[in-house]
Every structure is written in structure tokens, then in C-alpha cells.
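Summary for the steering committee. The consortium agreed at its last meeting that each partner would contribute one worked example illustrating the joint modelling workflow. Our contribution is presented below. We chose a case with several input lines so that the handling of multiple components could be demonstrated. No manual editing was applied between input and output; the record is shown as generated.
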Amino acid sequence: MSSVTSPASAARQEVTDFKGRLIGPEDGEYEEARDVYNAMIDKRPALIARCADPDDVAKVVRFAVDHDLPLAIRGGGHNGGGLGTVDDGVVIDLSPMKTVEVDPQARTVRVGGGCTWGEVDAATNEHGLATPSGIISTTGVGGLTLGGGLGHLTRKCGLSIDNLLAAEMVLASGERVRASADENPDLHWAIRGGGGNFGVVTEFTFRLHDVDTVVAGPTFWTVEQGPEVLRTYRDFITAAPRELNGFFLYGSVPPGDPFPEELHLRQVSGIVWCYAGDDEDAAAKEMAPLLEQLPEPLLHGPQAMPHPALQSAFDGVYPKGDQWYWRADFVKEIPDEAVDVHAKYGAEMPTWKSTMHLYPIDGAAHDPDSSDTAWSYRDANWGSVFAGVDPDPANVEAIRRWSIDYNEALRPYSAGGAYVNMMMDEGQERVRASYRDNYDRLASIKATYDKDNLFRVNQNIQPQT
Ligand SMILES: Cc1cc2nc3c(=O)[nH]c(=O)nc-3n(C[C@H](O)[C@H](O)[C@H](O)COP(=O)(O)OP(=O)(O)OC[C@H]3O[C@@H](n4cnc5c(N)ncnc54)[C@H](O)[C@@H]3O)c2cc1C
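What follows is the complete predicted structure of the assembly.
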């Protein structure tokens, strides 16, 4: 490539029979194409390759290698740290790859690498089935799954990776392979938590569960009652049956339906429930031991709804285009001293969209051993996230400061690392701590499949030398 030829022009000449679209800075659609979910991320790739199929992906991987260009992989573009894009490099944008094929007999679903969870949940729900995903329907299947995948069904069905039966991949060499228990099992082990470090996943196959209608919704108490709620919650949820999931939060009541007007924008503590069954009475019976110990809530809203309705319940509050800064931690126990720290920062949320969640990662997520997949923290009970969010760029420093200060004040009570999908750019030591004893094996597998670290725009596992 001559110094005057842009990567996009070079790609148009060299990447032959490309079925998707090659977009460079000179193209009208470039501004829209470079946009990711977090408006704080403002990167300018040299080439955005919207790939239509695995052959397109393989061609772009080879092009990036040949031209020594940094490469990012984009699934749903939701990554908080902006790891689905890169300055002056190549973005493999998988968004055109939208196949969703449910096999109700085998109870599996095959999912194209560019799908979002809303697309998958809608298709599987037609058969009364679901696989565990996250809590916002616009999140990409790719990034969420490869980092672990926690959400409303974690306690009953495990993490997304615990249901990932197989993946079709394009490696750094451009070669296409399958990763499953029988084929390239080391790769299958590594991608279940190891993120996009090992190749581009063009198709996922997930196990499905009988989850159709769920009983879901929030219970809110005042923010001042937060410590009492959190102390009761921490002891209750870890002993609750697996059907019952509930994450604790500090947040604000959204200013719209279905919430009563007098609660709009009120800061609250609360629990967002998901009972994986359709029986409202059975759900109420399981929640009762907690509710009986606590004061009358401001609102108690769980009700029967289709699983996809729960999965998209937060979409309106968190559309694309807000400023996001978040930090995270794995948590084994929540001692009273930690509850006090939560009380302080929970009452100091800088904007109404800012929130702290404690997602349960026990129940079925504890069934595998720490070394069974790359996800090492099978002994942690929660993944915490401190999300500073606001539409206004003027508030970036306030949301960033709150998130960092909250997270750091709780570090003495952390299990060690954090969920890689909810980290920002926090340095190599933090990545290593998040994989713990699995890091060295990951680094060795990385050396086998990507020795030159082509796939490094991620929470990076460095190839063992
Ligand atoms: C509003 C919001 C809600 C969220 N809720 C949850 C939740 O409930 N549970 C949860 O677990 N996480 C949640 N997350 C975190 C989410 O898992 C990460 O942000 C994840 O990176 C998003 O995946 P993506 O495909 O949309 O991201 P992208 O930005 O497209 O990609 C992020 C990373 O994933 C890799 N990647 C993506 N697709 C592929 C692929 N097909 N092959 C190889 N590598 C790939 C890329 O290398 C990149 O490093 C949430 C994030 C947001 C912003």
C-alpha cells in the first residue's frame, strides 16, 4: 500500500468478492458507521468492514495482517470501554450477520455473530425457550457471551458461556475452525470467558431452556432504607431457590410509565426480580421471606410477562448515545462495613441514570469448577457494577469520579478481579487478576492461536512467550 492510498481504498482493490460493505472516512455513511453505544467513545477507524459472512471476515482478517493494521471486532457495539472500535485501524463489523435458527427438538439455537440479544430472545420465545443473556436487549451476543454473560437467568441456567455448545470462528491466520467439546476443545475452553482474544466468532450455538413467561419486576425502598435492604438481601438471595433471581440496586425510578408519577426520579434502593416460571403465587411465596423482614416498599411490581418483555424492560432508560463510565468487581461476601460504603455512595448518585447493581452469580453459575471454563470466579456470589450514566457530556467528570470512588472504596471487600465485560481500560494487572489461575493457560492458548496478538483490542490476554 503506497503512503497516499488509504486503507479503505486499498481494501476496495485488494479484498475481492467482498459481499458486505467497506466503509472509509470519505464515505457518507462513515459517521453513522463509526458510532458505538457509549457516546464517550469517539474513535476514527481507517476502515469499517461490514461483513456479510465468514468468508468476508477471513478476507478482512488477512487484509489487516498484510497491512499491519490494528483490528477491532464489533458485535453489538455495547462495550463500555469502546473495544468494538479502534483509531486508524480496521473494524470487523458483524452487524449484517443476523441468522437466528432455533432447533426446538435439539433445544439449541444457532446465532450469527452480529445478533443482539433481543433478536435471539424473540426467536427462542416463539418456542417457549430461552438461553441466559443480559438485561438489555440491544447488547451484542458476541461480546456479552465471550466475556461470560450474566443476567436474569444466571441462578437457574448459569452464565451464557455455560450454555455455549459451539462456536464457528475465523482465526488470526484467516483459517475457519469450530470450537466445541469435541473440536478444538482448548479453544472452546478459552472463549468461554476469554473475550474476543482468540478469533472472530461468526456463529454461536447455545443450549436452550424451558423459560417462557417469567414473573419479573422491581421492588423499591427508599435510598435511606438501602442498608437494611442490602443486609437482608445478601443473606436471602444466596439461600433462595435457583428459580429466583434478584439483583440489588441503588438507582432512580425512571420518569415514565409504568412507574407512578410521585416516584419519578426518586432515588431508591431495590431489587429487580426474575422468577423463572409463570406462577405469580409461587413467585410471591419465594419472595415472601425477604419481604416479611423489611419495611413496606415504595413499590412492589413483579408480575407475569413474556421473557423478552423483561429482557427489553430497561431499553428505554438506556438508549444508545449516553455517556457511560463504569467500574466493576467480583464479590464473595458483603460484610456490614461494605454495606455502609454502599449506603454512602448509593446516596450520592451524580445523575438519575447512574446506578449500582449487584448481580447474583451463584446458583447454576457455581456448578462448574473455576478451571472448567476461562471464567475463574466460580466462588464469587455477585458481580458488582458502578455505572455512571448521563446524556450530557458536561457531566462526564462527575459520573467518572463517582464510579471510580465507589469502586475503590469497596476494593477491600472485593474477591480480587472483575467481570471483564464491565471494566474500562484498567491495565494488564487488572486483567490478570480477573482471570486469576486461568490466566497462564489462556496465555498459552493465545500463543497457539494468535501468537502475534492480532486480536488485542479487548481486555487483552498476552500470548505466552
Ligand atoms: C447498557 C448495557 C447493558 C449491559 N448489560 C449486561 C448484562 O446484563 N450482562 C452482561 O453480562 N453484560 C452486560 N453488559 C456488558 C456487555 O457484556 C459488554 O459491554 C459487551 O462487551 C458487549 O458486547 P457487544 O458485542 O455489544 O460489544 P462490542 O463493543 O461490539 O464488542 C466488545 C468486545 O467483544 C468482542 N467481540 C464482540 N463480538 C465478537 C465476536 N463475534 N467474536 C469475537 N469477539 C467479539 C470484541 O473484540 C470486543 O472486544 C452491558 C453493557 C451495556 C452497555
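The mean pLDDT is 97. Residues 37, 73-80, 83-84, 94, 113, 134-136, 139-140, 142-144, 146-151, 195-196, 200-201, 318, 421-422, 457-458 surround flavin-adenine dinucleotide (CB under 6 Å).
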